[in-house]
Amino acid sequence: MSLRKEQTTKRIEFEDGDWIDIKENRNYGDTVHAQRAAAIRRISSSKKEDKKGDEKSDDGGTFDFDVVSFNLALLERMIVAWSDDEPVNKETIQELPNDIVQKVLGEITDTMEEQDEEEKKA
Question: What pTM value is reported for the model?
Fold first, then answer.
């Protein structure tokens, strides 16, 4: 196993001649980017008393995971090119038809599962 893999792409073709190229290998930076986009910190509004008996805010809070934000951030990192004239960014990705987005996400997920299996064998 090499520490760094050469970045290769996979082309997803659609019936009308359009295509989307995605990275074949997700790297740690792609994962971190998507996870940070998906993490939503919820601040607790409960109050606690400190040792002196004074009231203070409990600012520990909790985190929620927003799957939609995760998917959008992952698509933004994994799509490297497409047949459309517009640039690849969050706004243009959100304008894609849902069936295309689902197909691309499925391909990304399949690619990640294949990558995990290869790493387990190594």
Answer: 0.72
